[in-house]
Design goal:
The complex is a heterodimer.
Chain A (H helix, E strand, L loop, with lengths): L1 H26 L10 E6 L5 H13 L3 E7 L8 E6 L5 H20 L15
Antiparallel strand pairs in A: 1-3, 2-3
Chain B lengths: L2 H28 L3 H7 L1 H23 L3 H31 L37
Helix pairs in contact in B: 1-2, 1-3, 2-4, 3-4
Classes of the chains: A alpha+beta, B mainly alpha.
Chain lengths: 125, 135
C-alpha cells in the first residue's frame, strides 16, 4: 500500500521535473551563457536491474540531465552512474538532486526510504 | 463540448507543443557537443509531443464525441512518447560515449575522464607487478 502512495508521488515528481526542466531550457535560451555542462559520477544505492533501469530512464527524461554511462557494480563497490548535467550550479547540487530522486524511487520500489550511503556487499543477496 | 472551449484548448496545447519543439531545436544550436544536444532535446519529446497529442485528442473529442478507444490511444501515445524518448536518449548517449565522440572541452567536472578526489582507479588489464616480463 505504501508503495502505491510513493509511486503516485514519484510519478507526480517526475512530471513536475519535466515541466520545470523544460521551462529552464526554454528560458535560458535568452541568456548569453547558455549551459555549463558537467559529467558527474554517482555511486548508486539502486541494487536490482529494475531499479537501475527506472532510475536511468527517470534521469534521462528529466530535461537537463542525461545518463552517459553506467558502470556495473561488483561485490566490493556499488554500480556507478555517470550523468551529463547542463544547468546545475555545482557538482554538489547536481548530486544532491540526483540523490533526492533516487531516494524517492527507492521509496517506491522498496516501500520505505533507504539509508544515505550505498550499501556494502554484506547487505546484498 | 463548447466550440470556443475546444478551439482554445486545441490552440493552447498545439501552439505550446510546437513552440517547445522550436525552442528545443534552437537550444541544440546553443550547445557545443553531441551529449549536450541529446540532452537539450528532451523537452521536445518529453513535453512538446505529448502536448500535441493532447491537442489532437481534444480536437477528436470535439469533432467525433467521446469514445474509450480514442482516449486509450491518446494515453498509450503519451506514455510511449515519454518512455521511448527516455530509452532512445539513453541509447544515443551511450553510443555517443562509446564511439569516442569528443566531449566539449569546458565540460567541468568530467568524471568520465577524471575520477573524484580520493578515488584510485585500478585498471585490471594493466599488470600491477612491474617485474614480470611479458612473453
Amino acid at each position: 500500500m505504501m508503495r502505491i502512495i510513493h509511486g503516485i508521488g514519484y510519478v507526480a515528481y517526475i512530471l513536475w521535473a519535466i515541466l520545470t526542466g523544460s521551462f529552464t531550457i526554454v528560458t535560458r535560451l535568452f541568456r548569453t551563457d547558455y549551459a555549463e555542462p558537467m559529467i558527474v559520477e554517482l555511486p548508486m544505492r539502486c541494487a536490482t536491474d529494475l531499479e537501475v533501469t527506472l532510475f536511468a530512464s527517470s534521469i534521462t527524461i528529466t530535461p537537463g540531465t542525461l545518463v552517459a554511462a553506467i558502470a556495473a557494480g561488483n561485490s566490493a563497490s556499488p554500480p556507478v552512474i555517470f550523468v551529463h548535467a547542463l544547468f546545475e550550479d555545482s557538482e554538489e547540487s547536481a548530486l544532491a538532486g540526483l540523490i533526492d530522486m533516487e531516494s524517492r524511487l527507492l521509496a517506491m520500489t522498496r516501500g520505505r526510504a533507504p539509508g544515505a550511503q550505498p550499501e556494502n556487499e554484506g547487505d546484498r543477496s | 463540448m463548447n466550440e470556443t472551449l475546444a478551439t482554445v484548448l486545441v490552440g493552447i496545447f498545439g501552439i505550446t507543443g510546437s513552440l517547445l519543439l522550436l525552442a528545443s531545436a534552437l537550444a541544440m544550436f546553443r550547445v557545443r557537443d553531441a551529449l549536450s544536444r541529446i540532452n537539450v532535446f528532451s523537452p521536445a519529446t518529453g513535453l512538446g509531443m505529448p502536448l500535441i497529442v493532447a491537442a489532437a485528442y481534444v480536437f477528436d473529442l470535439h469533432s467525433a464525441g467521446f469514445s474509450w478507444s480514442s482516449l486509450l490511444m491518446a494515453v498509450v501515445a503519451v506514455l510511449c512518447l515519454i518512455i521511448v524518448s527516455s530509452v532512445a536518449s539513453n541509447t544515443l548517449a551511450r553510443s555517443t560515449v562509446l564511439s569516442g565522440q569528443p566531449v566539449y572541452r569546458k565540460t567541468n567536472p568530467n568524471r568520465l575522464a577524471h575520477p573524484p578526489a580520493g578515488v584510485v582507479d585500478v585498471d585490471p588489464d594493466v599488470d600491477v607487478d612491474p617485474d614480470v616480463d611479458e612473453g
